[in-house]
Fold this sequence. Notes:
Blueprint: H1 3-13, E1 24-27, E2 34-37, H2 47-60, E3 62-65, H3 72-80, E4 85-86, E5 100-104, E6 129-136, E7 146-150, H4 151-156, H5 160-166, E8 170-174, H6 175-178, E9 192-196, E10 198-200, E11 207-209, E12 216-218, H7 224-235, H8 237-240, E13 245-248, E14 254-259, E15 263-267, E16 276-283
Parallel strand pairs: 2-3
Antiparallel strand pairs: 1-2, 3-14, 4-16, 5-16, 6-14, 6-16, 7-13, 7-15, 8-9, 8-12, 10-11
Amino acid sequence: MEQYELDAVRAVTTRPAREYRTITVDPVTPVIGAEVSGVDLSKELPDDQLAELKQAFLDHHVLVLRDQQLTDEDHKRFAGHFGELRPVNPPPVDADPYVLEISTGAEADNVAGNGWHADGTADAEPSLGSMLYITRVPEPGSGGDTLFANMHLAYEMLSPTMRGLLDGLTAVHDGLVAFQGYTPPEGYVIPKSEHPLVVRHPETDRRILYVNKAYTARIPQLSPDESRALLDLLCALPAQRPLLTCRIRWAPNTLVFWDNRCVQHHATYDYYPHTRYGRRVAINGGPLKG
């Protein structure tokens, strides 16, 4: 690695470990993800425990809470502590408008999220984050892990010259990109928005590389060829740099909460013809600022 890359990694990995009183936090890797224990999400959480969960979320970007027995109301109550719940688009028929079923059966030829992306970045105000609660997993040894990538560190590991170039650019995010080769669901409103290429996290002020292969269409300040070449380079970073990532292995009754503003994820579909089932609740975000 180049010296500037080493400096970026060391700045993250040498931070003093935070002490928690009401929860146990075990990092998955030094740069992203943590397993949290000592929490029962089926009950109302005390203020001090909730405050520590919020801090752990900002520190690790992905929280894994296992052995949870949750109803949809429990799920929504926990999500509501972090912000306004985000309705499912398009709305489900005769079902809770805030709970999205994530179901993959033997008949599937692909699954949503099978590729590096952040959720809904074509929206004018993308989500703050998502809480996915998996209750049925593929048979043991059949796969189904989800990968997560730290896009703070993806930006920080770029050369100073590249960071200087990106800081002044924007990108168009188009919902049609995600549906190439597929038909959008009936009633789905296809969004399209322009965001800074580098945004600041609204709570920590850290910079984030804000592009992803699923939604980012072009950089309007560059020629089409320049835009495509730069986006190909940037969108490939999560796959090409395992250092940015963690791998979460699902078990029944596991809830994973990730920060959609600074994390990309990849739901690996490597378990055909086995099945997986869960429910997701998303949380509204706000406008993105560079």
